[in-house]
Amino acid sequence: MPRGSLIIISGPSGAGKGTLVDRLVARVPRVWVSVSATTRAPRPGEVKGEDYYFLTAEEFEAHVRAGDFLEWAEVHGNRYGTLAHTVEDRLVQGLDVVLEIDPQGAMQVKELLPEAVLVFIIAPSMEELERRIRKRGAETDEQVRTRLQTAVRELQLVETYDHVVENDDVARATDELVGIIESLRTGEGRC
Ligand code: 5GP
To answer: What is residue 165's predicted lDDT score, i.e. its pLDDT?
Structure first.
């Protein structure tokens, strides 16, 4: 069984990463999406172990000390991390693994596993990004501002990514993402 590919998906909050990843998984078999650990509180409707492993600061710190994380980073005042063993197990099983993580984490993974393929999802404009974040209604005005500031900072890293997908239209952007994964399987897209 050939080892699966590791695909990292980053992009500002509100760019629509989650929707695109859900659609990707529905369309392409043998793709596994990693579940991160976080110290952030669950949003309404989020399910423990499905959306995230919700940990206390102490529990998260214990994993950091034990060296359990492939990568971890602080984003918007909370810590987020990917548990190394779950990713490695799936890659060995030949599954393609998707990590939906921020650019700080993406750079850490790329250092350790240079074969990882980095995809950055962008919204058509900052105005559209703000509209999408506000529509979600989960953040206060101050949190929206923080997320937009983070977006501006993260956009400066876009050139370090292998692919940039503009989420102007969900169906079109999904097709593009599916095309990237499929080209990895045929070997064309390997970097
Ligand atoms: P949210 O709180 O909106 O779910 O996620 C906030 C940010 O944290 C997003 O940019 C998301 O990609 C990032 N994130 C989620 N999980 C991880 C992770 O395991 N590691 C890192 N580095 N970032 C993550």
So the answer is: 97
**CATH 3.40.50.880 for the 6-186 domain, yes or no:** no
Distance CA 7, CA 182 (A): 12
CA of 49 to the centre of ligand 1 (A): 15
pLDDT digits 0-9 by tens, 160-177: 999 999 999 999 999 999
100 touches ligand 1 (CB under 6 Å): yes
Asked if residue 101 has pLDDT above 90, the reply is yes
Q: Whose CA is nearest to atom 21 of ligand 1?
A: 101
Q: Does residue 110 or residue 138 have the better pLDDT?
A: 110
Between the alpha carbon of residue 87 and those of residues 71, 96, 101, the distances in Å are: 11, 10, 13
CB atoms within 10 A of CB 131: 12
Nearest CA to ligand 1 atom 2: 40
Strand partners, 83: 69
Index of the ligand 1 atom closest to the CA of residue 11: 10
Counting from 1 in the atom list of ligand 1, the atom nearest the Cα of 37 is 19
How does pLDDT run across 108-126, given as a tens digit for each residue? Answer: 999 999 999 999 999 999 9
- The response to whether residue 154 sits with its C-beta less than 6 Å from ligand 1 reads no
The full set of domain ranges for the chain reads 6-186
148 secondary structure, DSSP code? H
